[in-house]
TrEMBL record:
This is Fe2OG dioxygenase domain-containing protein. Keywords: Iron, Metal-binding, Oxidoreductase. Residues 210-309 form the Fe2OG dioxygenase domain. It holds the Pfam family DIOX_N. One of its GO terms (molecular function) is metal ion binding. Belongs to the iron/ascorbate-dependent oxidoreductase family. PROSITE patterns: FE2OG_OXY (PS51471). InterPro entries: DIOX_N, IPNS-like_FE2OG_OXY, IPNS-like_sf, Oxoglu/Fe-dep_dioxygenase_dom, Plant_2OG-oxidoreductases. It comes from Aquilegia coerulea (Rocky mountain columbine).
């Protein structure tokens, strides 16, 4: 079933929409030379951080279905090492057409180029609304605003879409199916890497009804990038996030206490392990902290596809990975829906909610 925003819906709910502005429109103002104080994140940004360029692990997706046992065993080992050491890796040979990835980014660009009043028709208060446009992280509670506009569209288990731009529905439906397949196949390999059956995570998390969301992030040029932040250090909810972006850098991943600049190869997915994979693995695979910096020259566009359990699934550490004496359960159980509602309704903070459910 496809759900779209209709004009009737817009008119009925207009008085519920929060009053927000768009960073894009602010950045494009003709007399714009300095940012408003509410966007001032830190005057010491990047001056005290250790930033490095390191080789991010690369996973060859095609080998997950290899008929050669040694090749499959090798990629399972590579997944285990990437998840445990980095929580982040680059996927090549994933099978998603590069043309589809590019068209999806183009559709997101077209959305952000719509008139502000049209985009604000998607500005819902409900953090779990199937379609939601906004700025910063959560303007209703943010003390400091972040230099981004975003669009969140839920695409599974029920597919939602926008009436505009034209072709958004068709392209996003195909793209969602393709990325969901990649995520589920990666999770089969990750399941094996934990010593579990191949389909353990898929079945336990009811991934046939997984909660999939597309999140487009627009980071316009900022006249004072040294004191603004696109998104501060944070981890993602869910199991895996698959991300693509345009050719403008800004993504950094925290690795061994250093911020690593991410330079993706063409036609690849950037994948990070998320909070609920950390919970499932009882802390063996950590959800990785990452952040988005801004610049004063070009617009950065990214598109994340997040993949989580079924909304009503209570996520706890896998029994086989818990030992009451040597490795007791490190996390309390919570439904995925409760977790997301609590996370998205509060200030963004590194692993704040994950820390709250630790035993």
């Amino acid at each position: 079933m496809v759900a779209t925003i209709t004009q009737a819906h817009v008119e009925t709910d207009a008085h519920f929409r929060p009053k927000i502005g768009c960073v894009k429109d602010l950045a494009e103002s003709s007399d714009f030379t300095s940012i408003p104080s509410k966007y001032s994140y830190s005057t010491t940004l990047n001056q005290q951080d250790v930033v490095a360029d390191e080789q991010i692990p690369i996973i060859d997706f095609s080998l997950l279905n290899s008929n050669i046992p040694d090749q499959r065993a090798k990629v399972i080992q590579d997944l285990a090492k990437a998840c445990q050491d980095w929580g982040f890796f680059m996927v090549i040979n994933h099978g998603v057409p590069e043309s589809l990835m590019e068209r999806m980014l183009d559709m997101c660009t077209d959305f952000f180029n719509l008139a502000e009043e049209e985009k604000l028709q998607c500005a819902e208060v409900d953090v779990l609304a199937p379609i939601r446009f906004g700025t910063s992280f959560n303007p209703s509670v943010d003390k400091v605003f972040f230099w981004r506009d975003f669009l969140r569209v839920r695409t599974h288990p029920q597919f939602h879409s926008l009436p505009r731009p034209a072709s958004f529905s068709e392209i996003s439906l195909e793209y969602s199916k393709r990325t969901r397949h990649v995520a589920r196949e990666l999770l089969k390999g990750i399941s094996e890497s934990l010593g579990l059956e191949e389909c353990y995570i898929d079945k336990a998390m009811e991934l046939e009804s997984c909660y999939q969301v597309l999140i487009a992030n627009l980071y316009p040029p900022c006249p004072q990038p040294e004191i603004a932040m696109g998104l501060p250090p944070h981890s993602d909810h869910g199991l895996l996030t698959l991300l693509i972006q345009n050719q403008i850098g800004g993504l950094q991943v925290n690795h061994n206490g250093k911020w690593v600049n991410v330079h993706p190869l063409p036609n690849t997915y950037l994948v990070n392990t998320a909070d609920h994979l950390e919970i499932l693995s009882n802390g063996k695979y950590k959800s990785v902290l990452h952040r988005a910096l801004v610049n004063n020259k070009a617009t950065r566009l990214s598109l994340a596809a997040t993949h989580g359990p079924c909304l009503d699934n209570v996520v706890t550490p896998v029994t086989e990975l818990v030992d009451s004496e040597n490795n007791p359960a490190q996390y309390h159980g919570m439904t995925y829906k409760e977790y997301m509602e609590a996370l998205l309704s509060n200030h963004i903070h590194p692993k704040s909610l994950l820390d709250r459910i630790r035993v």
